[in-house]
Structure formats: C-alpha cells, structure tokens
UniProtKB/TrEMBL annotation:
Belongs to the major facilitator superfamily. Sugar transporter (TC 2.A.1.1) family. GO terms for cellular component: membrane. The chain crosses the membrane at residues 20-40, 82-100, 112-131, 137-159, 171-192, 204-224, 285-309, 321-343, 350-372. The keyword Transmembrane applies. This is Major facilitator superfamily (MFS) profile domain-containing protein. The keyword Transmembrane helix applies. Keywords: Membrane, Sugar transport, Symport, Transmembrane, Transmembrane helix, Transport. GO terms for molecular function: monosaccharide transmembrane transporter activity; symporter activity. InterPro entries: MFS_dom (IPR020846), MFS_STP/MST-like_plant (IPR044778), MFS_sugar_transport-like (IPR005828), MFS_trans_sf (IPR036259), STP/PLT_plant (IPR045262), Sugar/inositol_transpt (IPR003663), Sugar_transporter_CS (IPR005829). It is found in: Membrane.
Amino acid sequence: MPAGGFSSVTPAGVEFEAKITPIVIISCIMAATGGLMFGYDVGVSGGVTSMPDFLKKFFPVVYRKTRNPGIDGNYCKYDNQGLQLFTSSLYLAGLTATFFASYTTRRLGRRLTMLIAGFFFIVGVVLNAAAQDLAMLITGRILLGCGVGFANQAVPLFLSEIAPTRIRGGLNILFQLNVTIGILFANLVNYGTAKITGGWGWRLSLGLAGIPALLLTVGALLVVDSPNSLIERGRLDEGKAVLRKIRGTDKIEPEFLELVEASRIAKEVKHPFRNLLKRRNRPQLVIAVALQIFQQFTGINAIMFYAPVLFNTLGFGNDASLYSAVITGAVNVLSTVVSIYSVDKVGRRVLLLEAGVQMFISQVIIAIILAFKPLHGLGDLLGGSSPVKHSPSRPDQPGRV
C-alpha cells in the first residue's frame, strides 16, 4: 500500500486501493455546504420571529399580543397560523421537492441536483431579505424549502459515493456537522442583529443565508460528479476517469468493475418499491422507518426552529432567549464533532444506543425542572426575565386567547 493511502475493504474481502486526495476533501467540504444552508434556515427562523420589528411588519397581531400584559401565558401570544406557516412552509416545500429531486438525482446526476438546490437557495434568500409583505416572505421560504429538498437528496448521496470506504462514515456526517454549524451561526447572527436599531436587523439575518447558498452553488460548479452516478447513466469511460482522479491511483480496476456490476444489478430490479415491501425486507424497512420517526418525535426540530421563542415563553428575556439558543447550538456542534471522530471507530450502533439513553435522561430532567420550577421563574436560571410583566386577568381582558 503506498504511503498516504489505504485500502478500502468491501464485505466480499476485495481490497480497493485509495488515497485521501485533495479533490475528495474539497468536493466533500463544498458539497456539505448544503447542510450549512439547511442548518442556517432552521436556526434563523426562530430568532427573527422573536424580533419585535419583524413581528410588527409581518405579524402585527402577534406583536400586539407580545406587548399586552393582560394575556396570561406566553404560549398564547405566538398562537398564529401565519407565523406557523412561515416556519413550516420550508419543511412542506422540502417534502414535496424531494420527490422531484429523486428523479433529477438519478437521471441528471448528483452535481446538477446540487446546482438546482443552490439556485433555489439564492432566489429564496433574495426574496426573504427584500420581503415587503407576507406573500413575498412565504414565497421565499417555499423556495428555500425546495432547495432543502434537492440538497438533502443529493448531498449525502454524493458524499457517500465519492468518499473512500475507511472514512466514509466521518465524511458523510460532514453534512450533519454543517447543519449544526449552520444552526449555531444563525443563532449567533440573530443575537447580533437583534441589537441593530432601525428595524432592519431581521433582513440581515435572513440575507446572510446567501453566503452558504453561494458556497453550495460555486461548489456544485467546481466538483466532479460521482463515479457511481456517471456509471449509472452509462458514461463508463468518464466514470472510470473520475474514479482514477478521486482515488489518486491507477489501480482502480477492481472497484470500477464492482461499480459497473452493482449498476447492472440495480437496473435489473423491477418494481423496487414493491420489492421493498416483501416479507424478507420488512425488518430492515421497519427499523429504517421507525428510527426516522422516533428521531422526529424527540421534538428536536421544534426546539431548533423555535428555540428563542420557546425560551422566551419560559420567562427568559430577549437577550437571554437568544444566547440560550446559542448555547444549545454550540452543544449540538460539539456533539457532532465527537460523532465524526468516533463513528468509524466504535460503530453506528454504539452511538445510537448512547444517544438514545442520553436523550431519555435529559428529557426526564427537563420534565422534572418544568414540574417544580414555575415557568415565570425559569428565566432567573440565566439571569434574564421576561420583559413583559404579567398581571392578573381582568374581566375586560380575558387571560386566554
């Protein structure tokens, strides 16, 4: 084995010689900026929805509720369908776009699909930052959601296909790392822009999403498509040349032949979704689906979307709410870095078990705190209190909405 490289071993025991070439590292970093964009979009929404200037312009009803001391319960103040549409439209659009992205990823390649995602991101950012009314704001969020759907379809697949086997787990988690970095970056930006006077801080928060959007677009223009994608589309010679380039060696014939064979077998499969539902595949199908469902049921997406608002409803002041979200994002990034380092050493199963136990313990602790600590006093834990003092409900100002 040459210096600076290693052998990728398949389950069949065939060794594939490969080096960690600069083009692999650069391609993976540039492609993973799709995760950065997704994370920023997730993190920025909660921050801007807690900014008074943003609420006053697009959601005046919510703004008036936040300034009304006669309404008991901060949760009621943010009970607004338009506000919920602002955040959920990204996910709904992403879900719809995924079905189209699966076609482009297969037929047009991973690289072009990432380029399409970058285009959606850029247009969505421009509309959000320049929004003059709610329709323009929601349209921008929908386009960002389309970008998320295309990026989430192509980027992880591209990373897994272009990375050598030995570091494939770590490089694939690079997408998730960029998601967490994007969330943290958004929280930091929101903390800074909330202090800007003049009512345009929220525009800066939404507009800075253009940085990862441009990175993804430029990256999609510079990277090569994966050998798997090229071979899948019948471009064998080009796929072989790219494989030689990204592996940094001329001894790529065994891996190339295996990719060709895998593509041939995949094309022979008729009705893949029907085969997926067969009895022999049900255990794997149930496990894969259940893992994703229960991961969502932990509520982590709601926390990442609404962190500043959630902290505010618990009695934290505006500043305390924003820097509490920063702390949450920082821990998220640190945990992902640990996963990157350990995933190829201890395995996926160990990390999954550890994460499950940790989440269970943390949620039990949170439940105990919420049960014994009055909501209006939780802000004292971080030295902040709600800027709105609550007064008892009066007959002319009911305590509920």
